[in-house]
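Q:
Just now I want nothing more than another pair of eyes on a protein record. Here is the record:
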Amino acid sequence: MFDYKLLAALAAVVEQAGFERAAQVLGLSQSAVSQRVKLLEARVGQPVLVRATPPTPTEVGRRLLNHVQQVRLLERDLQGQVPGLNDNSTPERLRVALNADSLATWWAGAVGQFCADKHLLLELVVEDQDVGLKRMRAGDVAGCVCATDRPVAGARSVALGAMRYRALASPAFIRRHFSRGVSAEGLIKAPAIVFGPDDFLQHRYLAAQGVEGGFLHHLCPSSEGFLRMAQAGLGWGLVPEQQVINELASGELVELRPQQPIDVPLYWHHWRNGGELLNQLTDHLLGTAPACLIAP
């Protein structure tokens, strides 16, 4: 039988990115949390954590975390079925990974009513849409929004729609770098804005324009900061269409190549045995996301 106090310690260390914060969440000393993780490792006969900064789960650790996530959700179902177990004082908290652009645009509107109706608290983990699925593999989220349609083992994926991105820059930036029009040579020399090292959207856009290889770029891991940098003329970048409706209408930002957007499909991944709450959230997203996104 599993000792769920030991599993809770493992989950807290991974979710809180360290032993100290895990101890605060669990109401224990840091030493006690460490001892529980060590005892768990003794029980399974191998390490469950890589002691790094932050700590990361080993392969067996990921399997245990997946189990913990699913047990938490199934316990919620059982509390609803057995009145004596129901504790209405503590709302359910669901960890979900999604890309920053979804968080900055459509996500809140799509899930707001559901969270209110279900008394659900969200703990959002922001990852690029191309790599968010690694959180599912690591077992530290119950669901994720990403650009990959193939689910990890034990999970399902459903298509939500697509986000449309447009290559934009300020008028001053365009005058400075593209006075003779947008060309492949100009795109290489003009600094771009990239969300982070895992963001390859600009690379795909440049490849479609016949540009291969490296290019000058800023790194800005913030959707709001990304937009502000483009407005300030620091570079050009691919921005969600939903985020810049007013800026495009006013001429504050201008599209580099009109009628050549990039559509990024988005998929919702969730555990097969994640309980009724995840199933209900999936049904809700399938009903609300199409109004927020475009057909892929």
Notes: DSSP finds 13 helices and eleven strands in the chain. The chain has a mean pLDDT of 89.
